[in-house]
Amino acid sequence: MAITTNFSLTLFFFFFFFFFFLFPLFSNLGLAQVEDPELKTCKHQCLQQHQYSQSDQQQCLQSCELYHHLKQEREKQIEEETPKKKDHSHYHQHQQEEESRERQEEEQEKQEEEDDNPYIFEDSDFHTKVQTEGGRIRVLKNFTQNSKLLQGIQNLRLAILEARPHTFVSPRHFDSDVVLFNMMGRALLGLVKESQTEKFILERGDMMPIPAGTPLYIVNREEREKLFLAMLHIPVSTPGKFEEFFGPGGQDPESVLSAFSQNVLQAALQSPIGKLERLFNQQNEGSIFKISKEQVQALAPRRSYWRPFSGPSRPEFNLFNRRTTYSNEYGRLTEVGPADDKDNLDRLNLMLTLANISQESMSTIHYNSHATKIAVVIDGRGFVQIVCPHVSKAKHEKSGPSYHRISSELKPGKVFVVPQAHPFVLMSSKGQNLLVLCFEINARDNKKFTFAGKDNIVSSLDDNAKELAFNYPSDLVNKIFNRKETFFFPLESPSEERADA
Amino acid sequence: MAITTNFSLTLFFFFFFFFFFLFPLFSNLGLAQVEDPELKTCKHQCLQQHQYSQSDQQQCLQSCELYHHLKQEREKQIEEETPKKKDHSHYHQHQQEEESRERQEEEQEKQEEEDDNPYIFEDSDFHTKVQTEGGRIRVLKNFTQNSKLLQGIQNLRLAILEARPHTFVSPRHFDSDVVLFNMMGRALLGLVKESQTEKFILERGDMMPIPAGTPLYIVNREEREKLFLAMLHIPVSTPGKFEEFFGPGGQDPESVLSAFSQNVLQAALQSPIGKLERLFNQQNEGSIFKISKEQVQALAPRRSYWRPFSGPSRPEFNLFNRRTTYSNEYGRLTEVGPADDKDNLDRLNLMLTLANISQESMSTIHYNSHATKIAVVIDGRGFVQIVCPHVSKAKHEKSGPSYHRISSELKPGKVFVVPQAHPFVLMSSKGQNLLVLCFEINARDNKKFTFAGKDNIVSSLDDNAKELAFNYPSDLVNKIFNRKETFFFPLESPSEERADA
Amino acid sequence: MAITTNFSLTLFFFFFFFFFFLFPLFSNLGLAQVEDPELKTCKHQCLQQHQYSQSDQQQCLQSCELYHHLKQEREKQIEEETPKKKDHSHYHQHQQEEESRERQEEEQEKQEEEDDNPYIFEDSDFHTKVQTEGGRIRVLKNFTQNSKLLQGIQNLRLAILEARPHTFVSPRHFDSDVVLFNMMGRALLGLVKESQTEKFILERGDMMPIPAGTPLYIVNREEREKLFLAMLHIPVSTPGKFEEFFGPGGQDPESVLSAFSQNVLQAALQSPIGKLERLFNQQNEGSIFKISKEQVQALAPRRSYWRPFSGPSRPEFNLFNRRTTYSNEYGRLTEVGPADDKDNLDRLNLMLTLANISQESMSTIHYNSHATKIAVVIDGRGFVQIVCPHVSKAKHEKSGPSYHRISSELKPGKVFVVPQAHPFVLMSSKGQNLLVLCFEINARDNKKFTFAGKDNIVSSLDDNAKELAFNYPSDLVNKIFNRKETFFFPLESPSEERADA
Lengths: 501, 501, 501
Prior knowledge:
Three copies of one chain form a homotrimer.
Chain A: H1 2-15, H2 37-48, H3 54-89, H4 93-116, E1 120-121, E2 126-132, E3 135-140, H5 143-146, E4 157-163, E5 167-174, E6 176-184, E7 187-192, E8 197-202, E9 206-210, E10 216-220, E11 227-235, E12 244-245, H6 262-269, H7 273-279, E13 288-290, H8 293-299, E14 317-318, E15 324-328, E16 331-336, H9 345-348, E17 350-357, E18 361-363, E19 366-368, E20 372-379, E21 382-388, E22 404-410, E23 415-418, E24 424-428, E25 434-441, E26 448-450, H10 457-460, H11 463-470, H12 474-481, E27 488-490, H13 496-500
Antiparallel strand pairs in A: 1-23, 2-3, 3-4, 4-11, 5-10, 5-12, 5-13, 6-9, 6-11, 7-8, 7-10, 9-14, 15-16, 16-17, 17-25, 18-27, 19-26, 20-23, 20-25, 21-22, 21-24
């Protein structure tokens, strides 16, 4: 019930606004894509808002993309649920059997697909853990459910928090360490410390590690835009599982306190049971709910003459502002890792990277020596290719493994994993700046090795070894592998003639 | 056979002494308890011993409690075993079937109970690994056998060593790191170091981490009291399993040496096989056996003019003597953890805490951010309540989880686990000082968060967030949550009138 | 096909050379062994090479032993495969059934054997991962496949690389950290660093830790001798599994690059597809292949006036040259561990030890407190005995476990595991210097405890405890356990008379 209501409300909210916007066709790789009219209108509307700054517009556009995605997924869910209902009421038995057979086949195919794509996650791999009128929290399934090859990251869970404009995400604590990244929007984060609440303003790109057990609340400060936070959960004692505990609360969210016996509560809180029952009966708005503009403003941190330290804190790390590791006109890579944050990222052995690939460009072909990447597309479209020895079905009579390419289209919200030591490449589409957030697990001692660009593996090999390895003259190999750009390149193919010249 | 003999001996030992003692009725929480007459006599006898100091008397009383417990458990075991025998001899088939059905039902119920109580362990969850006339070692079953939720501590095993007065616990080494805590009695611990044996006097409350592989022996130095040691085993290479290796020994305990081939032993020990056979044939007393007063005295460490360093060592940490973390008239909490012992507790990521709750008092409602507690009740009676999102069966249509209360009566010897991030509370009964030892696993970076008393989570929330979270005026919330005491409170409920006044 | 060709080639290579050599009979422990004539000839030939230095001769002899081993194993393989083929063509059904029954019984027996020998690995426990004309890589099966007791080392895999004279082992990287040890031969190791290749000369006994992902190639520099490298793989993210990735390559070994799509390769390497196809079509020699003397010389590192740092590097640790931990006329023990190599061995918590036991000698009976040993016999023959509480089948009515002896003959190439805390002993045969390489897992905080020789456990016990533990006068115990030698002893049994005198 909650889903449908919310759905129509949101539709209303969107139809109220929009018009038309021409989406750049995704023609480069031979794909023609027709954009949803609703999406077009949404985007057009963004550009019409004259009071918006350019970055406001940018955010608005991205919000459209993410919303659109969300909608498609819901429609898919509805479709999937429909035939099941039919099973029990309308259809004749014969039809049922046929359907069931078809479904079996579909499942088989899906199974095969999954076996072929152990590292790519679809929207349907998320389940909705929390859904209220104010927003929702979607959690990606256990990585090992997708493939046993992902054992190395089986303890982790990725969640995406979506909060509608001007909402309050109720105070809670998790039994997991959490690393939070603001993908889109402006948030206020309240962290309960020893005797007070420290308030952080989270801009887009801000990263915050939050130790397990720390009570936190979140506010979407924007009046118009949704807030999207990526949350990597690192469970402390139940591998691959995490739970929410609401302290302050009532009926919904339910307060953990109300589960204690009456005599405990009375003695602990020094209050008669009637008073306590009144307290724990009030909250029924859910764990994410709409608040007024005034309430948003009241929650804003304020520095004052009397309380100079109660003002807003800034998270230590914003991935947009970090000094780049690699940067040229084709892309930028920024990182924050164990060496930057001894307290948290080092303990968690985790690095966050943000790859920002200019339109029609690519990263070099490369691999991480020790780190496995959990990547989330924040913005733009493109492709990923991962090369993998595991899934090859070819019987090899050769002296080494065969390799198989896993590739996937990328669009906002898409999640993929790149296991350590596996070579891969990221590409952006025409007119699409591709923005990918990566959680790099096991980041300590990690090194990146490249296969193209300055100081790549092949050009670093001595000539004699090169010649033996390729069974090809080293000067010809060198011509192919020596190129001056580092890490990011334009996605252009030389013509046979030009290159030979 | 060994069990029955030992049992009658012990009965004799107790009936020889006792009389009558009025046990304070456990009336506060509506429970009327009738004390076993044997237990009464035992306790009375303790109080009659005029040569005893007050602390001697205290220990004697506690020993009665633990003994009583032990006896009840044995009786239960005997009861459980009886019907099984009948199955095979006396009953008609019909009766057997009925019994078997009943037993199935019982098992089902037990199953459900276990599902409901993943964190509480009964006496029947221990199995007796060693049983001799001199004492026994009981080992708690694997934690994950109780519940998959305990995966985080699945590597650990808890054992309780009980040694009768004036006994010798034979030299052995374990393939696990061991943390030993003296719950009751006075012991001598011999640790074999590089070229000599270091002797430690272990008083009640002493804690000793012992690295895997270290040969050790133990002596119960008391002529009248049993010795109770809690031993947390942290297996090094076989998760959740540990083994004993007896070097010195003979037939029983069997020496590991006697398993080597004759030529190995002869060459290593430079002795003909006849001599070696004589050596390894002598010991047949078992791994814990009675020794004379003179033998106990001969084992005592002595400092002399010639050997100034051969005197007794004292363990570095006694949990009764540590500076308290929290202390008031309602209770005291002492701790020793990674920061105190870089060599062992830090490596094991372990903290030991001792909660000493005055009669009719309680701990605050609180949780540990990272540490999971394995708790053993040493003395007194009371209750524990743990709040848990996992076992709730209610289908929630709400935006968060439902919570379920797990509660259990506490008495000496009871074991329970409190998972990290789960709020819980400890309470003592009327006239009962509750003494609980906790092994806190994953102790580094752990913080305690409270829901009542000074600086609790709710009072540390800013007023605006508080008001939103509870949907209740913040001044009313504050009235309930602001209280000056820290961590320990009296277990008293305010009357409706007084509190409203 | 590859197997047979290689086999005949090698046979040819050996028959071309040899004559006759009298192998010292293995009489000490009652075993009469008849040496294979081929092996005799091989060894004789080694001794006839006048241009060889003494150490050259030594290596040559060892190479014979290893080759012989290899051959026996292949013959076994061929035998095993033969009856299977018959099943499908020649035999009648009755015979098939009988055979199948026999095979079942064999398997049962084998099962029992394995249960009895969880710690001993046979040649048949290796599988051949790579096999080319130039050499092969054999990988030991997962340790936990042998026994669940080996969970503590389940993540690790042991591989043996064998490369024929003057061969090139193609550049590749692994998704595992690798610790490489040169068991026999002289190699060149190329490690691809940031912008160049660092070349190491690996002599026998050299140890090299190689971080995951590092591209490496290997050259067997010897014209006549095989190269044998032990490689311990420590997978980073897929426990117990590792994979090879060939960057430079072609058809065989297949280059990972060729699995990327054409547009990726063209854009990354700035070359038209025709050129790239030519490049990735050349290599078809396999991942280990023969190269010419000139090619070997060309690969040799050279220091020059212009490039003073491009000369050969030496690995930091050679286990033959390390200062000994224990050394006397009966044996030598050298070690390199966490304290010596903060960068790698400390991170991997690993120690390498080399035990060199003189002929007819033994190590003391001892155990490691924390480290589990993975041992590979490099040279010589002898025996190992491990004492183990786990596999005992005897129902014990005693107060402790029973122990069982696991023993195995040792010969070059044999692998065995000694779990931490388990007492064991190594012995060499008559005329056989036993050389054993051990990877010690979980090496930090490890201590060795001995049962014989100076400062052993028993002699370090105080006399009163000793007397109680053995139930035997301490002066008699002391006579047996006090011996002055440390760690290595002669393997001689005193006669009953002499010892009693």
